[in-house]
Amino acid sequence: MRRSNQGQVLSGGMYTYISLGTNDPARAARFYDAVLAPLGLHRCDTTAEPNWEDWVGWGTYEDGGAREIALWLCKPFNGQPATAGNGTMVALRATSWEAVQQFHAAALAHGGRSEGPPGLRPQYNADFYAAYVRDPDGNKLAAVCRGVTAPKGMAL
User: Fold this and answer.
1) CA nearest 141: which of 109, 107, 111, 110?
2) Are 54 and 1 in contact (CB under 8 A)?
3) What is the CATH number of domain 2-145?
4) pLDDT averaged over every residue in the chain
5) Pair 70, 61: CB distance under 8 Å
6) Which of 139, 130, 67 is nearest to 103 (CA)?
7) What does pTM read for this prediction?
8) What residue spans define the domains of the chain?
9) CB-hemisphere CA count at 13 Å for 89?
């Protein structure tokens, strides 16, 4: 158990959820199902929740959101078209270089575009292996694997 400097109990990371806008929830669902599967992330079940039409999420959503760490996509609340934020990016953890490569390939195969192919980024750290993509709505995503500095089977 961790505590904040104010003594509050912290139950994990910094976020409970991240929400990105989409103009086409069905298209977004197909894209994210494909690109998040290599990272071990699966669709949240909101079938018992009222008013969740046009929302789709991946990660953990349990007990009506009492336990949640998820990435959600929805149409913007203000009814205006979804737009991507300049400088906004969601970086997702990958457990292997292969997962990063599969994430990137799935993004390109499902309507995304590359913002940086899989590779080491030594400008960030010697073990920072990442790929960057934009989803069909223009949101920027990264898959990042840390702790490895050479492909499997090669001496370090």
Assistant:
1) 107
2) no
3) 3.10.180.10
4) 89
5) yes
6) 130
7) 0.85
8) 2-145
9) 15
